[in-house]
Amino acid sequence: MACKYRVIYCLNQFFGGLGGEDKAYQPPQLIDGARGPGILLEKLFPDIQVAATLIVGDNYVAEKTEAAIREIIALLAPLFEAEGVDEPHLLLAGPAFNAGRYGIACGAICRAVREGFAIPAVTAMYPQNPAVEEYRKDVLIARAGEDVMGMEDAVRSMAVLGIKQLSGAELFPDRDGYISHGRRKNYFAEKTGAVRAVDMLLKKLAGKPFTTEYAMPVFDRVQPAPPVHDMSSARLALVTSGGIVPRGNPDRIEAASASRFGVYSIQGVSAFSAGTHQTAHGGYDPTFANADPNRVLPLDVVRELESEGAFGSLHGSYYATVGNGTSVANAEKYGHEIAKLLLADGVQAVILTST
Amino acid sequence: MTKQIERVGIPVVHACSIVPISKTVGANRIVRTVAIPHPFGDPDKSPEEEKKMRKELVKKALMALATPVDQQTVF
User: Fold this and answer.
1) How crowded is residue A113: how many other Cβ atoms within 10 Å of its Cβ?
2) Most exposed of A255, A287, B22, B45 (fewest Cβ within 10 Å)?
3) Could you tell me which chain B residue has the CA closest to the CA of A327?
4) If DSSP codes are grouped into helix, strand and coil, which group holds residue A233?
C-alpha cells in the first residue's frame, strides 16, 4: 500500500499502553511505529503511516506544561531536522474525549508542534472537555464523544481534518466537525444579508427548518424555586445589575464589564436619593437613575410595603453590580457569591432589578 | 445572577425592561418594567403618580414570588 502521509501520533500513558495512574508522571518517550489508536488509524486509512508514537504521562504534562512541552519538542526535533529524513506531514494527538489532563496535553502539544515545525496538528475532544476553552482558538480540535466508545469516529475525524488541512482546503467548523475557533471570515455571498435574513424569517414563519448564520451562545436553565409560602413573614433582599451604588462609587465598580459587585447597607435607610446614591452603569443614560435611584432599585416603595406588612422584613444590605458587557462567566460568579451570602443571612426571596 | 441565586433554592423575580433577554438568560419569574434607564420610574409622570406606579410594580413582583411556576413566566 502506498504511503502518502507520515504521521506522528501522541498518546497518554494509558492509550500508549504503558499503564494507568501509576504511570501518569511518565516523561515523554518516542517509539517507532503505531500504538493503540495509531494502529486503528493505519487500518482506517491505508495511505497513512504512523512514523512514530510519542507517549507521555497525563500529570507530567498537565502539572508543568511549559517544561514538558519544551522537552517534547526537543524529542521530536530530530524527526524534522536530521539529515536525509522523510519529514512527518502531520501530527495527531488523542482523542482525549472528556479527560481534562489528556486534553491539556493534546492541546499544548498540537499548538507547540504547529508553531515549532509548521505542520498541521489535530486533536479531538468532547466539546465540554475543560481543555477546549484553553486551546480551541488556535488548535484544530475535532469533536469527539465523551468516552472511548467514540474512538473510531474521533480517529477518523482527526485524520480527515489533518489531510484536508494539508491539501490547503478551507475548513469550516460545522461542515468539517471541529470545535469553532471563534473566528469570523469575510466572504462574498450570492445574496445580501438582508435577503438571507428575510429568507430565514419566511422559513421561520412557515415553520420550516433554517440555519442561523450567527448562533447565540447556549445558556443553561435552572428549575424554578418553590414560591414563598408566607410572604407576611418572609425576609426579602434586593439585588440589582443596574449599578446603583452609594454616591462616589466606593468600590469603583466599572461602568462596563464589571469586575466585582458591591454589598451596601440599607439599615435604617427609607429611600435612595440623588444625594446618597447614584448609578455606576454605563451604556444607558444615567440622568433619570441619578436624579432618583429608586427608579432602578425601588427602595422607597419596598420600605412602604414593609411597613404595611406586605412582606416580613427587608434584608439589611443590598447587592449591586453593573450588567453592561459583563461576561456570563462573571455574572455567574457574582450570582453564586451573592447566593451564598443570601443563604447565610436567611433570605427567602429576592427582587433582582436590571436596566 | 438570577439563576445562581435560584439554584440555592431562593425564589427570584427578575424585574427588567427587556423580557427576551431575561428569558434568554433563564430567569423563571419575570416582571416587565418601564424602560431601560428607569425600570421602576417614569419621569413623564408626576412624582406621586410615578411612585404609585412603582409600588404597583413591586407588589406585582411580590405576587410573582408567592406564585408557583413550573416554567419561565412573565407576570
Assistant:
1) 26
2) A287
3) B1
4) helix
> What's the CATH code, domain A5-176?
3.40.50
Contact A9, A41 (CB under 8 A): yes
Q: Structural domain of residue B31, as residue ranges?
A: 2-74
**If chain A, 355 residues long, is cut into consecutive pieces of 10 residues, what is the mean pLDDT of each piece?**
84 94 91 96 96 94 90 94 86 92 94 94 90 89 93 97 93 92 86 95 95 75 93 96 96 92 96 96 88 97 97 97 82 94 95 94
Domains of chain A, by residue range, sit at 5-176, 231-353
Is the sign of the CA dihedral B27, B32, B38, B40 positive or negative?
Answer: negative
Average pLDDT over residues B32-60: 94
Chain B residues whose beta carbon lies within 8 Å of the beta carbon of residue A253: none
Task: Collect all residues with Cβ–Cβ distance below 8 Å to A92 and sequence separation of at least 6.
Answer: A7, A8, A9, A10, A41, A121, A122, A123, A155, A158, A159, A162
Grid coordinates of A228 = 414563598
**What span, in angstroms and rounded, lies between the C-alpha atoms of B65 and A234?**
10
Q: How far is B25 from chain A (nearest CA, A)?
A: 6
- Contact flag B26-A220 (C-beta cutoff 8 Å): yes
| Cis before A95 (ω within 30) | yes
Please state the domain count of chain B.
1
**pTM beyond cutoff 0.95:** no
The answer to whether A225 contacts B9, with C-beta atoms less than 8 Å apart, is yes
Nearest to A288 among B10, B43, B54 (CB): B43
